[in-house]
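Standup notes
- DV: blocked on the single-chain target, sequence here:
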Amino acid sequence: MVVNEVAPPERKQWTNPIEFFLTLVAFAVGLGNVWRFPYLCAFLIPYTFMLIFIGAPVFYLELTLGQFTSAGPLAVWKVNPLLRGIGYASMATNCFWGLYYMVLIAYCFYYLIASFQLVVPWSTCDNWWNTPLCTDQKTLANMSRTDLISMRNMTSSPSEEYFYRRVLQISSGIENTDGMVIELVVALAIAWLICFLALSKGVQSLGKVAYFTALFPYAMLTVLIIRGATLSGAVEGIKFYMGTINLSVLKNPSVWKDACTQVFYALSCCSGGLIAMASFNNFNNNIYRDTLAICCVTWFTSIFSGFAIFTVLGHMATKMGVSVADVAKGGPGLAFVVFPEGLSMMPFAPLWCFLFFLMMCTLGFGSEFSIMETVMASLIDEFKIYLNTPKKIILFRFCLSFIFFLVGLSMVTRGGLYVLNIVDQYLGGFPWLVIGVIELFCISWVYGMDNFCDDIALMLGEERRPKVTLDDYTYPPWALALGWMVVIICLGWLPYIFFVEICRRGTWNIIKQARLPHAEWGPAREEHRQLSNRYTSNIHMKNLSMQTLTSIDSIDLNSDLFVKNLSNKSITSF
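- DV (later): unblocked, structure below
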């Protein structure tokens, strides 16, 4: 008796390389680029260093593994069966992040719908959910700064009470779930339905959606920056965002750890998603080019979004009569408490609130789609014997989405915020660092770099770089590393001097002052310098102006530190 088995469908591929690139952009550029990136200057140097020397290589490694094997994060680690646990660890992490992201998207949905009102509900204190401690910031703005700071310690803002008492209806602790918030349940169900529809046909439908999820947030960030730049106080917000570089923070190991964690979070490395997305590529796709482009886009977006945020926060601080430090805080509280309050102070507040939360939904979905496609595609690869028809695959995707929705209900109870915060605190980068180290060990030492480089040459059709030799002598690896150290010693002066000049001149004057040559620049002899006014009176004026700027910067720094010491008492963490 002959049994006719249905062959599993052929693995799908991206329609074109642009869809793959845009999907990676949407995947890497998520909600974390808006609220997790710390204030710019104290963090930019270690962040850039980690991005270049750790983030980009791991990003390239994962894209190579996925494209070379055309397999998901579970099957790809057949490269060493003893370490297949890497795939399952990244898959488990992905599942929790899929739940986490979708709840945040549900919050954004809630605010998006609430924006369809003439007066946004988080701008006033005359609602049923407000407490006697709620104080309208318009009233507080009429008080002196001293009274205002003490008042904020005893009161709560309308946006705080709206988020905690209306949206979350938060309980006293994680042990008290106190039932579900019906509005959030509905928002969560809609979000999972959209996710299923976007992924119903796998990468073919995901690639089409990526045109919107990848490009729309940049259009909105640009609009917010242009609008924010016209607001009063925008300059103060940018000054606070740019800050003053303090090189002493580079001595703190935790700063480097945080920078590395942020790089892994921003690039979505070691989550399995990059391997899954690259597995749908053409075998000869140029992933080296994609890696460089995505890393540059991620770096740019992290900084670019900060300008959009802090122009509005500067306006908010000006309207309230406080410093930017009093209103600025990171984390989801920035998106759901501080920034909505700032938008509510702008003309046509409902419009700007709607556009902002539409952008946040788009950013969230851009990452969520890739996270869930990673989970779904990996399981389909594992059980392709049973999931051997398009109808079965679509049904499987629907069932998996429904299961995730049911599990996610634990995060939309009145104690759900506490569950959400646990996921954020414990899975916010550290597991990815561990997975990344094991990945590098597996490929570099177990599989072997020679084999891996041969695979890249086979895939990209490029010959490996010839070994350095002298006649019949071939240099050992440590000698080649020594050669690269010589190159770094020579070229390393370029970024070193660049950052030293920025620090010496003052960060706020980077654009205006750092481009100017040093006062001693020009002809060496005085008689030659007298031939041009550029090297006589102008340089004298520059020296005077630099002395003035230095004295002003020292005064501003002292005052800022004084304000920050006062304001730290009034900032509450999410």
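- Follow-up: The chain has two domains: 24-452, 516-574.
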